Structures are given as structure tokens and as C-alpha cells.
């Protein structure tokens, strides 16, 4: 296990890099470990940056998990910030580094090298893109700049409704700013299926975020001391501050220059032990392409969890190849909160499965996040997708105010285990009134999938239009009156058997309720009485 | 799928019985379904009873998920409350029922019979046990009686510190009563390992519950208009109201009388389809013994989740044996909250594994329930137990103020999937600052298990006493000063490498910190420098 004087150089001092250095030191007190970081900070909490801008995380120092000094003291690592790696000589096993702003190159010898350069926010070459009011968010410096600019801003435009865009929109609203959120696609969170983002869109609108969906950015122009963001179709949004959060690209230039193999989208290709095409050069974090754990296909997941675990796995293989365990690939689990609503996802979405031509089925169910009779129950919508032939779970998405993270974590675990959707029916999850239900919404998804397989459940994803279909809302009269379903007749479930004569057997029926459960019960009654009935799937 | 006029009789109208009736009706509109319930209520929320007593659930009606009338109307089921089943003639396939207080027997024919009689609170034949101030809690009537008695009580004794006992102790404190919680074992929650209940005990004490652990009850006596509870060893507790919550016994008398096979502890034995020894008689819920999903051994889990799913599974097999899926057995997942602290468990505890002689290993880890830099992070302790030879996860327990349910549900899923403890290291759980950490405490458990296997991590479960061992607390000086570890020297981790000379290489060292993580880092430094060092395991 001991490798006296093994020389390890780590390029990049945040999630993957710092994890690698820490694990390497735990495995070997003797190794010489040098950590090179271009920026002034190491081991900071990228994911917390939006929350300091909005003030939810008050102390800037809270985001610095370590200073260069404390990291160096704790790990006995040579930490060099403000230093960039400019060239790798893999034949001589050395890497050239240079202090920012200086000319002198210094060559560092390595036995094992980790590349953890991360990914940069995209900044497409649009007209006016160099306006200093247009910002991106990657590090503490970017955060400081946005926070300073926001302090004197009134109107903010956030371009891109992914994780960072949503978090920034929320935080800017907390600061009292006028916020417009622009997204190229016709939905928030393009990673998810559009229908599953409906609750999130309502929540943002309710909290005063102006949504501008389906609009590409064509360019920017300085206008009266502000920026005019020109959208496709002629519309424009004027803002004192623009945050661009349309995605990231891997910082793989150094790797490319060194001749390491890159993936189709420019990521550094690695094997299960995080080795690049040069076995003494490892790579981890946002810049690498690993494999998708569900399908085995190439996959890059630029998120903190995979970065940390990859950095750790790389160190294990550098120092202890005989016991090192491979990184099994990524699933793509993620979550974001905006105001009270959380959206979570794991594995593949329906639209991604469709795009890849993978045959799948799905159910969307809805129930309270804990026992409905206990105060504070909030509805939660869960979609589960599985492989048609085998039932193997391929993905899941959830939306709600409470308990979204829990259900996504259960599904992420089920996916990692290769469970089938039917297995969800009998998961024995923790139940006491403040925490869950005797039949959790995860169980309901499994039961619904079995009912689908058995031909008991037939759903439509949305309300049909036109007169061809009879729409029967089976909620109690008061609920129907408060929020009537368009073009529906209200026949509460408990009265349905006695009122079958009011319905036309020659026309199909779609049943509707609040959660998508009672409408299933109603459809069962109708079908067994000779009607052609389907129920409306739960809606986020 | 249709079984015209199939006659189904269901005995018991709460969790398992109501689930069975509802599922049966969805599978067949034509079946004749009769639901027999001894009490006045059906389909009520047993698990909510304590919360109505304390007022947390204000409305009594919220606990009635259905009235007999609404259940009957919704399901088209003949609901007969206040009626008990007194005899089964399984040759003639009929069951005798009688209205409470009446003599007349009525014989109901059945094609399929479900027994869902539940379990009764234990009421051991101790001296004075018949005192009307000594109550048990099973149904709405019991709840009303306790609520009424509590209204004029000042002192309450709760006997038994399981789920209901803990919930009652909390609720009585909410009502401002003096509460003594008596438990035969030397710990709260006897289902869990003692060490994992320490935080819960502190929380109860902090909230004014007097704990009386390791005390058996020897009898009760009327005294000055109150009850004196006599404890083993001579102590006594005087209370105006006593709630007995020391466990339940299956209500299997009818099944026994009918000659159905019972288990060792009096439960009704069932197969995977919930059939008893008579294949037309099914049983489900608290009265049955199913199998343990981890070990395949007989297991009875008297909880709402299994009851609901068993009732549903029984109905599926009654009406649709060709597509019915077996109930896979129970894992024993449970959770309880008292004040701010939740304790959760799934699978087997260490003491149960020890008692059965099963070779296992375990780790106990601790970390914040979400990113430490995001406001509101609460420490959470997680213990995972696995089979020594295979790594297969056998059980888990957690304690904390937030996120306990989520980790237990992840572990319950991992157990159901047959995952190994190493698999936990690479679970890809949802991470954003309000929800988790880049390395979740579940991941840490997996990593710790791997470190244990690799000989990197060596732990002691508790602080050693005596001078033989050097105790080194590696927390920062301020943390140490605020809460010093007895007999420890404080050497903060970052200074350890420079202060090795202060330690004696000839004596073993135990390292200590707040979460059990830094102390592991310290032990790694020490071991690699020739010391014999172990770290103190995380403590709940």
C-alpha cells in the first residue's frame, strides 16, 4: 500500500481534484502530492454560489470548505493556487505549470497525474456577448461580481432554465429584483419531460418570475446603460444584469493538446478507474465522459456527486490498484428547488428515450408526500419509466413541495440495483404519519405499472379535446365546483354505479380526479360495465 | 378476470381488510363482497391515533378515512360494523357472524375468506391490571378514552418505549402533562441497537420526559385516586393515567378454532399469496406470519405498510390467480419521531443478528443531512450492517432531526434489491444544497465499509477507559474547549503531523472527533507513522 515518494500532481482543486488529493493522502502519507489550481480558491462549494448571491447563505466564508492553507495543513499537500497547467509531456511524465501573469514555465515530474479541470459556462459568440453586464457563474469571483452587480440592478435576465438558471431566478426574486427567465425550449428544466415541469412553472410565475419559454437568444445590445437581450421572433428583454446559464463545456484543451483521447463532445475519455488513454494520466469531474450506468453508453454528468466520487476512485487506483474498485458510471441524478417546489430526476427521461428509440413504458402517479390525515401533507407527482420488454427501471422524475429528494433517491437506488418497476410495489418504506404513507407514492407507481401490464389501468396523458370523448370528473361536487374540469360532467365516484345511465356507451370516456387514483377506480367500474374508459394520468 | 357472483367475505375492516375489499372490487364489479368489522369504525388511521390525543391532528374525522357508509358507497361492498365472526366452517365454506350483544348467529357463505383480525395490545395478568386508569390504544374508542382521561390528568405513565409509547410520551408532553416513560430494557426502542437510541433518549429528557429504563412492571395499585405502578427493584411511579404499550399479540383465536396452522407465537401462517393452510382462507395484516425478506425466516411485522400490501395481494390472488404476484415478505422498516428526533430502522439490528448467531459487520457514520454550508444542516447518524462473507446488506438504523426517513428508505430499497454495502459508496443520490451532499452519509457508509475491508479503517465502538490507551481528540481547540472529551489530549488534525512526538508509540491510540470522519483521517496519519491507532466510531 505504501509507495514511498510516489509523485502525484493534481490539476484542479475543487470537487474532483480536492477529493483525489485527500484520498491519496489517506492512502499514503509518503506520497508527494501537488495540487495546481488556476483560481485563487480551492475546495469551494460551487453548488452554494447562487445561495450566497441571494443571501440565503450569509457568510461567504461558509462556501470555502478550505483555504489553500488549511487544505495544505490538513493534507500535507503542496497547494499552488493562481497557477495553471499549460502542457503535459507524457513521455517524460512531467507537466508544465505557470503562475498566472508570469512567463516562466516550471516542469513538475509526476508518477500519476489527475486532470480535474472542470467545465466552463458556455458563452456563445453572439453579437454583443462581451458586454460586461453579461455574467456567468462558476467560481467565487464570478459570484462576487454578480452579487455586486445585482446590488445596483433592478431588472435581471437569466438565460437558460437549467439548475443554475432556476436557482439564480429564485435568488434574484428574494433580492426583490425583476426577473425574466429565458429558455430556448418550450419548458423549464430541459433535462426533464415537459409535463413534469408544469408545477415548477406555476411556482415561478406565482413568485413573480416572468417566463419567456421557447425563445432563443440572437444577441445583446447596450441600451440606456442596460443590456437589451434580443430574442428570436423579435421580442427583447432589457436588463441591468444578465446571467448566462445555458450549459457548460469541458475544459479539455490541455488534455487535447497532450493527445489524450476525447469524446464526441470534447470530454476526456476515461475507463472505470478514471484512466485516460494514457494510463498514468487520470481525469475526473465535469470534464470527463464516463459511461451511463443504465445503458452502458457514453455519458457526461457535470455534477458534484460524480465529481467527488470519481476523484476518490482515481486516487484509490493510483495508490492501491490491487484493491481499487471501479467507478460504475453515472445515472444522472439531480434535483433543483425554486421557491417551494422541487424537481428531481434520475436516469433517462421520456424524451431522451424517445430520441434514442428505446422502447419504454411509463406511469405518472400522484399522492400526498406523507399521510394525508397528518398536517402539512403536500401532493407529489412521480413518473417512472421502464424498459418495455424487461420492466427494468430506466428513469424517474418527481415534482412537489416536500419529499421529492427522498423518492428520487429511492428510484436512483432501484436503478443502480437493476430493479424492475414491479419491485417498487413491494418496497417497504418507512411509514409513520409525519414521514410517509402505508402505500407510498413509490409503491403506487409499482402498482400502477402492474395494473398497466395486466390491462387494468389505461391512461391518457392529457385531457382530450373535442366532443368525441366524454369527460367524467369523479371528484366530490365541492372540489369540482371550486376548480371545474372543462367540458366535464361531474359524477362523484360514490354515485357512479347508480348514474351509469347518464353516460353514452357508444363514446369513449376519460375519467378525471385530483390525484389520478379515484379516476382509475372509476374507469375500472366503467370498463366492467361495458364502457370504453381510460383515466387521465396524474399531472404535475 | 370476471368471476360472476364470487362470494368474498372479509373479516376486519381496517388496513388489510379494507385494502383487500377495495382491490377485490377493482378486479371484479360482480363479486359479492361483505366486510365484517367488530368495532364501530372501518378504514381508520391507526397510526394517527396518538396525534389526535395530543392535538397535532385536530379533527377526529380526519382519522376516519371512510365511514362505513362511504366505504360501502364507494366500493359497493356490504359493510357490517359492530359484528364479529365467531366460527368458520371451512368444509361448508361458511362463516358465522353475530352482532355484538346479540345471540343470533348468521352464517355467511364464502368462496374466498380473508382474515384480517389485527393484533391486540398486550395486557399481562399483573396484579391490579384491571384498574380502569390503565389504558391501551388500538382504535378510535381507545383514543377517545385516553384523550378524555388525559384532560383531567396531571401525571401520566407510559409503559413500553416502542413506537406507540414514544409517540404517546411526546403527545402527553405537548399537553403539558408530567410524563414518565417506563421500559423493561435498558434502552428506548428495543427494536434498535441501544447505542443508536442515545440521541432519542437525550431528546426525551430535554423535553421533560422522565425515563425509567431497565425496569419491569410488577403490578399496579389504586392509591389516592391514582395508580401506583410498581416497578422491579422497589421503585414506583404514581400516575393519574397509565398507557400500556408493551407490544401486541395476534388476534388469531378464530383462526385457531378453525384449525388453521399457526406459527410459534400464535400468528396465522400464510404463503406468498397470503393463503392460510386452507387455500380458500386468506389472512393478512398484523395477525399473520410471513417471511423475512432478508433471511427467508418466519417473520411477523405488525405495521401498516405490510398490512395494506398484503390485503391487496390477497385480493389479487382471490380474483386473478393467473396474474397475481406473491408478497415477497417483510423487511421490518419502521420509523418513529419524538419531538425533533427521528429514529428509523430497516432489516436486522446488531443485537438480533448476534442473538441469531449470524456473522456480520457494521459501520456507524455521521454527517450533516444536507450540505453543511447551507443553513439548517442537522447531523444524522447511520449504522449499516452486512453479512460478513458476502457484503450483503442485512440492516440499517438512523437517528437525527432531518433526513432519517430518506436514508432508511434508500437502505430498505438496497436491502430489497440484495445490494452489498460496497454498492452504497457509488449510489448517485440527489444533491443540491437544500437536499443532500456531494457525498451523502449513505455513500460514506459504503466507503467506510470498503475502508474496513481494506484494513484502512479500524474503529472502536466506544471510548476506552483506563490509562492503557491514549485518547487523541483531533477537533479544533474551540470545539474541544466547549465540550472536552474526558481523558483526551487535544491535537487538532491540521497540527497532528508536527506533534507526533507528543504521543507514545508503545501505547495504543484512539482518535476522536465530532462526526467520526476527521478521527479516521487522524488514525490514517498515525498508523502510517507507526502508531497503533483506531478511531472512535460515530455516536448517535
Characterise the protein shown here.
Two copies of one chain form a homodimer. The first copy, chain A, has 540 residues and is an alpha/beta fold. The first copy, chain A, has four domains: 7-119 and 249-319, 3-Layer(bba) Sandwich (FAD/NAD(P)-binding domain); 134-175 and 194-204 and 214-246, FAD/NAD(P)-binding domain (3-Layer(bba) Sandwich); 340-453, FAD/NAD(P)-binding domain (3-Layer(bba) Sandwich); 459-536, Rhodanese-like domain (Oxidized Rhodanese, domain 1). Chain A is 25% helix and 27% strand. Chain A has 14 helices and 31 strands. A five-stranded parallel sheet of chain A has the order 3-2-1-7-19. In chain A, strands 9-16-10-11-12 form a five-stranded parallel sheet. In chain A, helix 1 packs parallel to helix 8. The first copy, chain A, is globular. The two termini of chain A are 52 Å apart. The interface between A and B is large, with 97 and 98 residues.
